[in-house]
Amino acid sequence: MTSLLHQLQGALADPSIPWKSVLLASIGAKEVFETYVGSRQRPYLSPVLHPTLPNALKPYLTAPDAHDTYRKSQAYARHKLDYGSVMTVLDLGETAVLLSGVALPVWNALGLPLPAGGGQSQWTLLRGFWDLAARVPFAGAGASEIRQSAAFVVLLTVVGTVLSLPKEYYRNFVLEERHGFNKMTRATFAKDQVKGLFVSLALEVPLVAGLIKIIHWAGSDAILRMVTWLIVFIFCIQIAMIFVYPYVIMPLFNKFTPLPTDSPVYPRVKNLAEKLNFPLGKVWVIDGSIRSSHSNAFFFGLPGLQKHIVLYDTLLEKSKPEEVEAILAHELGHWKGMHVVYLLAVALTQVAVSFSVYALFLENGALLSAFGFPPSAAASPLELVKNKLGMSHGGTGPTIVAVLLASMLVSPLSSFLQFVTNSITRHLEYDADAFATKLGASYAVNLKKALVTIHEKNLAVYGVDHVYSAYNHNHPTLVERLEALDSQLARDTKKST
User: Fold this and answer.
1) Catalytic site positions
2) Residue 189's closest CA among 177, 200, 202, 173?
3) Rounded-to-5 percentages of helix, strand, coil across the chain
4) What is the pLDDT of residues 344-373, one digit of tens each?
5) CA–CA distance from 30 to each of 77, 164, 410 (Å)?
6) Percentage with pLDDT > 90 across the chain
7) Residues spanned by the domain of 286
8) Which residue in 55, 96, 270, 409 has its CB near the most CB atoms, within 10 A?
9) What is the pTM of this model?
10) Side-chain-facing half-sphere of 428: CA atoms under 13 Å
11) How many domains does the chain have?
12) How far is CA 224 from CA 209, 356, 401, in A?
């Protein structure tokens, strides 16, 4: 196995391979595929080609304004699809600039560092950011690779956040506002961007440090050992995030208030939890309405400890108490079915598959040199051995850059994995719906009503191309869920008679 790995690594390190063209073609292929998938959806959003509700939904959508809501949902979906298409072009442009030397005149005008000994003909903005990272105060001259990589990630994240500001501004204050969803003030938007940046950096820097440490210790030629320890590392982070996200991150952006005990929803939540032996802690209401009129509900809590339920205030405003109870029955179906464990296993499998492929490129000097890095920048086997023995103090090259380039190079793989993960999560959604239905016919009826209400209030799309849905939706479509609920209810009724 090791011999085969070395042969593959050697073949891929051939300097005659035009890696820049190959990488850009790979990214472009993914974007072309996603554009094609989006084009399949467009006919379903046309008021000319699809002027009325899909026949399968007509039995469920009987409100007098159902047709108007359908037209509004088409307009909203068209706007989002158009926005996504423009973002694809902009993202491709930004990536092309990052991986080329077109920004060199601006870089020179700003007096920013260039590679020692010339080499400007092969310079790329990616190389420029790596060199600039060595000048960041906390990295320092002659800094270890981990510190320089942390500075590199900080630079990319800050620049990426700045570039995303006009995109996010348009999405919130034009797209969402035009369709009646945006409730965010510009002050809240500004604070969210600043908080989001610091949260991203606080998470990314230790993640990158751990990633590099593991790759150096294990060695990219020992795929099994490297991937095993990466899985352990990511698993620990995932478990930590179960605590950190609801207790630390979410309160930075939203206010949590206890659900009043005199609320008509409270006794329903409590009785449902007791019925299912759900270890209920507190029931919180989150002020989602300060940003959007979209709604949601979820629970959180560490394994083996109390779980806390969170209801968006918009959900309580739009849905009847019995519908909220049915939604919670669905959510507790995820708990009962241990779906979090399945999703964690899926995420760790993705890590294993991705880094097994990335390992082929982590020592590829030809790949790095195509983007302005000297071939010696790739971590050599000798340096990796020194790292394992604790004899090296960094300087093995930009591992984080190699990982970044490898992830771009095999980006079509992420498209395939997206189909797989969506298929799995959709199955879990069906399972949670079936769980709620088995609690009684009233739960099935109220869950259907709740799904229709949420769908209508959120202007979610009604007609969906099956390929587009499989790629973009991790939940079944409305008609798929309603038909599955009817089938499950019929089976349960037949069993009870």
Assistant:
1) 331, 433
2) 173
3) 70, 5, 25
4) 999 999 988 888 888 888 888 889 989 988
5) 22, 21, 10
6) 64
7) 2-496
8) 409
9) 0.89
10) 22
11) 1
12) 20, 8, 22
